């Protein structure tokens, strides 16, 4: 859970810097990619946990 929140925070910070600083739009793109990867990893972990609990 800590890793998830840390990656979300990093994605938000990169996005804000990418929007605010002229010529650093690539940071916004990196932030979006990090956020998408984080959501994908979290959803895979969540679905695995739900599958294990259903078997009990």
Layout of strands and helices, then pairs:
Elements: H1 2-20, H2 25-54
General description of the model:
The protein is mainly α. The protein has one domain. Helices cover 88% and strands 0% of the residues. It has helices at 2-20, 25-54. α1 (2-20) packs antiparallel against α2. The chain is elongated and about 50 Å long. The model has no long low-confidence stretch (mean pLDDT 83). This is Small hydrophobic protein. Keywords: Membrane, Transmembrane, Transmembrane helix. The chain crosses the membrane at residues 25-46.
List keywords for this structure.
elongated, Small hydrophobic protein, 2 helices, mainly alpha, transmembrane, membrane
Q: Can you give the helix content as a percent range? A: over 70%
Radius of gyration: 15 Å
The tally of domains stands at: 1
What is the first-to-last residue Cα distance?
Answer: 24 Å
Number of helices: 2
* Largest sheet features: none
- Assembly status: single chain
Order of helices and strands: HH
SS strand fraction: under 5%
- Average of per-residue pLDDT values: 83
SS-derived structural category = mainly alpha
Given the C-alpha coordinates, what overall shape results? elongated
Number of strands: 0
Q: TL;DR?
A:
This protein is an all-alpha fold and 56 residues long. Helices cover 88% and strands 0% of the residues.
């Amino acid at each position: 859970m800590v890793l998830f929140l840390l990656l979300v925070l990093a994605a938000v910070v990169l996005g804000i810097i990418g929007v605010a600083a002229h010529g650093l739009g690539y940071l916004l793109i990196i932030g979006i990619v990090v956020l998408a990867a984080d959501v994908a990893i979290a959803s895979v972990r969540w679905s695995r946990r739900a599958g294990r609990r259903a078997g009990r």
